[in-house]
Specification:
14 helices; elongated; single chain; six-stranded mixed β-barrel; 2 domains; alpha+beta
């Protein structure tokens, strides 16, 4: 007697109740798995992008907005700060280095960032083609930008004002592609890097075009030289003392704002955690309901198959075999629900990744089974086992003579 075949036949004999149990289990497992994957990918991306950045200095406003805009390039900047004031700050003995960032323009939704050569070094970026920018209006592209926009060495393009598509195009200033980075799986992949002077020159000439007289233009030239601005500065400290002293000093004694990436990300995750925990609880409730559904399905099916079970006992099947037939049904349902749940979560992850790519030019890479998902398999199998214990015990304890006599 092939017990596995018999279990499968019994499951297929009740398609409606079996389908309902599978749907509930798939939803529960799939939701929890999807949340595990999304949480993992977001944490990995955030940790990778803040590595080597102890503090961000920018215009006063929301510290979280400053971190999201300057580190992850997912929000609008809080404003501009004086380049002179920022340079004076990084001369402090507690500060090891500072990387200037200037942005406000984009090309087809990808940000154009004026910076120096420390920035690609921060993410360990290696050039796949060409070289780093050397002069104003030369650009080196992140791998995703080059691939998505099909840009190569020697291509030129005009940036647009604003960080989203549809802004006013700076037709008088064309950027030339001189280098393309390999993939770093960091924010750098979604950026167009150039010299800070490129950003200054574009906006200076745009302002100069509005001057009514040549004399006014000369006055503006002098003002421009004195008031050069950047959007943010990424700071790295020499020792932990900088983390304690510098943020307060910047916030109280300068026109700038200091924000700590580690602190703001933890705060963001604590806010997100409430929603994630709620969704996990809902998914666990669904899994619990699926367990009840499996129990009802097996229990009602057992009543319909009592005569069949009695005949099996009469023809030599042991109590253990009948017990295992019903237990196996519950376990097979749970295993199939887990597999379908994994497929559900991976399809969901692809959709979320496509949304992130479209909205923020981020994409999730890799979807291997994580340790938490193996625990999820044990939970699913445990639900199937618990749900089938009572029906399995009743099947193994069936009264052969009484059942067969009542059937006639």
């Amino acid at each position: 007697m092939n017990i596995t075949k018999l279990s499968v036949k019994n499951m297929l004999s009740k398609p409606l109740s079996t389908s309902m149990s599978l749907i509930l289990l798939t939803l529960g497992v799939g939701m929890i798995s999807l949340l595990i994957q999304i949480n993992h990918h977001i944490e990995e991306q955030m940790k990778k992008n803040v590595r080597g950045i102890d503090m961000v200095v920018g215009a006063k406003g929301s510290p979280l907005q400053l971190i999201l805009s300057a580190v992850f390039h997912m929000d609008a900047p809080t404003g501009n700060i004086s380049m002179h004031e920022a340079e004076e700050l990084i001369k402090h003995p507690l500060i090891k280095s500072g990387i200037p960032l200037s942005y406000g323009d984009s090309y087809q939704g990808y940000r154009i960032v004026g910076t120096d050569r420390q920035y690609p070094e921060l993410y360990g970026a290696q050039l796949q083609e060409g070289r780093l920018w050397q002069e104003a209006f030369e650009v080196s592209l992140g791998a995703t930008v080059a691939e998505t926009l099909d840009l190569g060495i020697g291509d030129t393009f005009a940036g647009a004002h604003g960080l989203a598509e549809g802004g006013e195009t700076h037709e008088g200033h064309l950027y030339e592609v001189v280098g393309i980075f390999g993939y770093t799986n960091s924010v750098l992949d979604q950026l167009i890097l150039t010299a800070t002077e490129s950003v200054w020159d574009v906006h200076h000439h745009e302002e100069e075009a509005h001057q009514e007289t040549e004399e006014a233009g000369h006055d503006h030239e002098e003002e421009h030289e004195q008031e050069k601005e950047i959007t943010a500065m990424l700071i790295n400290f020499r020792n932990p003392m900088g983390m304690i002293q510098m943020p307060r000093r910047v916030n109280e004694d300068t026109q700038m704002q200091a924000a700590l990436p580690a602190f703001e990300i933890n705060r963001l995750f604590s806010l997100m955690g409430v929603g994630i925990d709620t969704l996990n609880m809902i998914a666990l409730v669904i899994m619990g309901v699926s367990g009840i559904s499996v129990f009802i399905s097996l229990y009602s099916a057992l009543k319909d198959r009592q005569y069949e079970m009695a005949l099996m006992r009469a023809y030599g099947a042991s109590r253990g075999q009948l017990l295992f037939v019903v237990l196996q049904e519950g376990l097979l349902l749970s295993l199939l629900g887990f597999v379908l749940g994994m497929l559900f979560s991976r399809v969901g992850l692809l959709l979320v990744s496509a949304f992130m790519q479209e909205a923020y030019h981020y994409r999730f890479s890799g979807a291997s089974l994580m340790a938490a998902e193996w625990w999820l398999l044990l939970v699913a199998m445990g639900i199937g086992l618990i749900a089938s214990i009572i029906p399995a015990w009743q099947a193994s304890s069936i009264n052969i003579s009484k059942t067969l006599s009542h059937a006639h």
